[in-house]
Amino acid sequence: MSTSKAHLTGSLQPYQCYIGGRWVGAGSGRTFDDVEPYGGRLFARVAAGGRPEARAAIDAAAGAFPAWAATTPEVVLRARVEAADAALRRMTRHVHAYAEAIAEVDSRTAIEVPEE
After folding, report:
1. Least confident stretch, 5-9, 27-31, 109-113
2. Residue 47: pLDDT band by 50, 70, 90 thresholds?
3. Who's near 63: CB < 8 A, 6+ residues apart?
């Protein structure tokens, strides 16, 4: 299930930390709630990464840097385009989910204006 619709269906998929090419939860097991600002509903549960996760991410980035620095511009461009495409797909899903939520609110709050 897409996390963009999770807040509409009541089924939350937790967000994790992406470190060293893997999705991992916080070592502490802690999470925090991300509440959508319009309706105040719980949108997502997010891993509450701390110092250990930050250190692991920094170490992973430092370890990946030599290979990334040696990457040709063509490969870098392809990676950036793929990342932009993925971000656009996610954004589109979020826009559609919010449009559905707004349509639901509008349908419940519609006011009929009598004709004169």
Report:
1. 5-9
2. very high
3. 20
Q: Are 47 and 16 in contact (CB under 8 A)?
A: yes
Report yes or no: 25 and 47 within 8 Å, Cβ to Cβ.
Answer: yes
- Nearest-CA neighbor of 43 among 17, 6, 87, 98? 6
Q: What is the pTM of this model?
A: 0.57
The span from the CA of 74 to the CA of 78, in Å, is 6
**What is the spatial distance between Cα 3 and Cα 93, in angstroms, rounded to a whole number?**
9
Instruction: Please spell the DSSP secondary structure of 47-113, one letter per residue.
Output: E---HHHHHHHHHHHHHHHHHHHTS-HHHHHHHHHHHHHHHHHHHHHHHHHHHHHHHHHHHHH--PP
Cα of 32 vs its chain's centroid, Å: 14
